[in-house]
Every structure is written in C-alpha cells, then in structure tokens.
Amino acid sequence: MTEATATTPTGTWHLRGYLQRFGILISFLLLCLALSLLSDRFLTVSNLTNVLRQITVNGIIAVGMTYVILIGDIDLSVGSVLALTSVVTADLLQMGVPVPMAILLGIGLGMLLGTVNGLITVGFQVPSFITTLGMLTAARGMALTYTQGRPITGLPDSFRFLGRGEPFGMPMPIILAVLVFALAWVILRRTRYGEQLYAIGNNPVAARLVGIPVNRFRTLVFTVSGGLSALAGMILIARLDSAQPTAGVAFELDAIAAVVLGGTRFTGGVGGMGGTLLGALIIGVLDNGLNLLNISSLYEQLVKGAVIALALLIHRQKE
C-alpha cells in the first residue's frame, strides 16, 4: 500500500516533467509525422526549405513578441507597423534612396513607432493592450493614407536580395531569421540584460527595488519589437516585390500564438527563444500542410485553431 502510494505520484511527476520539457517538441514531431503520412510531398527538401522560408516573417516578429510577453506586456501593433514601414521603405527606394539607407530608415521608423508604444505605456501607465491597439489602428491608417490604398511595386534587385537571394545556397530570409534568433537567445540567456528582463516579468516591483530600470527596459523592449516588425516587413516585400498597405493583417495573432505555443507564460517571467522557434515552426508546418492537403480556406482557420489548441493542451499538462 505504502509502495503503491509512493509510486503513483512519482510516475505522475515524471510524466508531467517529461511533458513540461518536451511537450511542444512532441506536438511538433507528431504533426510532421501526420503530414508525412498524408502527403508524399511534405518531406521533400524543396517543401521543407519553403516552410522555413515562409516562417521567417512570423518568426522574426515572434522574437520581438517574446521579449514583450516576457516582461508581462503585449504588442498588438506589429502587423500594422510592418505595413507602414514596408510602404515607406518601398517608396524611399522608388525615390532613388540607396538600399542600405532605405533599410536603415525603415527599421528606424519601426523602432520609433515601438518607442512611442513604450513611452505611452510607461509614461501614462496605460495597459500595453490599449496602447498597441491604438497603434495598430493608427499605423494601418497611416499606411493606407500614405499610399492612397495602392500597392508599391517594382523594387530594385539589390533590395529584393533580402527576400530572394541565396548566398551559399541558403535562402537569405532563413539566414536573417537564424541570426535574429541567435542574437536574441544570447541576449536573453548570456547577458545580465536577459536576467533583468526575466526579473521584470516575474515581479516588476521587486525588480525596481533592486535597482533595475524597469520603465527604461519596458520602453526598449517595445522599440526592439517595432524594429523587428520592420525588418520582417522588408523581407516580405523583397520576396513579393510589392509593398501592400494592407499587409500584415492578423500577423500579431500568429506571433502571439508562436510565443505562447513555445511555452512563454502570458503573464511574463517564463519562456525563451527555443520555444518560440518551435511555436513558429508548428504554425508554419500547419499552414504548409493545409495547403498540401488542399483544405478549403473555409475550414483552414478551424483546423488551424483546433491543432494549436491541442498542442497547447498537451504542453499545458505541466500546469
């Protein structure tokens, strides 16, 4: 009796510990296994490369979103910031501004918009949900006004290299995404700034008491999120050779889903870039699988939502 009683909790603990560590990875592998059985095109090199290329935009946005959620905030404006910075960058290029300068100005605009989000949130003590919801509407309106609702096409070949180039046989968007994830991981796990972000997410009051400049960090995180949204937008328009003022609609939802699927706690303080990468891969593979299986767009969101909910259910067994 005593032995049985002692064994059951231990087994339960092991199961929960196992799901805690590998639940999201198991979900990803199961999804890949199912798609490989349902479609003989899924496990081809060209398709897997295409999946990686497709997730770069969401992945880069999700990196910034991970920082934001880690400190207990949210950024709903990433899709609209992407659209506004994309059309401005495309217009600068068509005016003859050199490519490096146009890229820097576009990213700078994204960082400026993110800084505005941070300053309003911190300075006026406005919940980030409300601040970034306002920026979502304002930036989208500015993008539509700036272009009069028309797309900007015909970008220089040197700029399109960001989306279509393949140095050393590797698509440029994938290289950029790997660099962004690697740098973000190093900052989060190997620097005191990362430790301070976790401290703010766990308990902002305690973090302030030990001397961490909480308001400055929160503003900086929104700045980073805006800059990464701009970078993601440039990769997108370089690939499509077209900047649309309506681009990026609902991108914030995919980014948030990738972060939360990856195990980052919505209230902050727990999470990391490895989990976010897995979350972005799950969403990308799911999108690709639905296309390969010719699932009607009428049911696509339903299937996508059900699979994401199932993955979250498996992963959240730890709680």
TrEMBL record:
Keyword Membrane set for record: yes
Membrane-topology descriptor: Multi-pass membrane protein
Gene name of this polypeptide: rbsC
Name under which the protein is recorded: Ribose ABC transporter permease
Any one GO molecular-function label of the UniProt entry: transmembrane transporter activity
GO CC terms in record: plasma membrane
Alphabetically ordered keywords of this record: Cell inner membrane, Cell membrane, Membrane, Transmembrane, Transmembrane helix, Transport
Species per Swiss-Prot/TrEMBL record: Litorilinea aerophila
Residues spanning the membrane: 18-39, 51-72, 92-114, 126-148, 168-188, 217-237, 268-286
Entry-linked InterPro entries: ABC_transp_permease
Coiled-coil segments: none
Subcellular compartments: Cell membrane
